[in-house]
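Case 222 in the screening queue. Each case pairs one protein sequence with one candidate compound; here the compound is glutathione. For every case the pipeline is the same: read the inputs, emit a complex structure as tokens, and attach any notable structural observations.

Predict complex for case 222.
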Amino acid sequence: MTIKLYKLDGSPQVRPPLMLADILKLEFEPVTVNLLAGEHLKPEYVEKNPNHTIPMLEDDGYIVADSHAILMYLVDKYGQDQQQLYPKDLKLRTTVNQRLFFEASTLATARQAAMVGIFKNNATGPDEEGIKKVNELYKTLEAYLSKTKFLACDHLTIADISCVATISAVDYVVPIDAKYTKLSAWFNNLKQEQWYKNGNEPGLEIFIQYLKGMIAKNSGQA
Ligand SMILES: N[C@@H](CCC(=O)N[C@@H](CS)C(=O)NCC(=O)O)C(=O)O
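Case 222 output:
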């Protein structure tokens, strides 16, 4: 049986499935999709995923697109004794779902807002609007973490795995203010985990180097 993960190493959305795979000891067959070369728009890719995004999972012919749906699927199917990562209890699961949808809509959009100027408009940093948006979301995350140790409850779930990939990228351009003590502690704790080091750090490094290169270019230093 092979589980293929279509990905590009620097993509923030690809890293949650990689971190989860490290926790669940799942092996993926990696398939690189070069977005810059438009490989995600090729008919054979669009046939599998009409929304032409990465990550995309192919499990014995079954396709799952969207990082959040991939996390849900992998725990349900391969979680074995790790089902607490996506709890079966209705209310706990619904809170996890809410945090995942928060990541998919609000947090991911804020990340893009904070970086779009650097990637597309020759900016050397995030604009005021982007910084404001990200800080509002840090406040929301701080509020979640004031109620429970992790984002959805008192133990790690896929909500944390999803959000930490985005936070780790956004923190580079809008550093988490020290006044958000709970959010800072949560982030520092997760950074110590081996699954974070294995699944997030290599891709994050590529992403940051790319971002640094763009900032240097936009500043006329490259
Ligand atoms: N909600 C999706 C978003 C995925 C996404 O936007 N991926 C970007 C790369 S980070 C992509 O594939 N962009 C190409 C496109 O949208 O055509 C997820 O979490 O998987």
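Case 222 observations:
- DSSP finds nine helices and four strands in the chain.
- The first strand starts at residue 3 and ends at 7.
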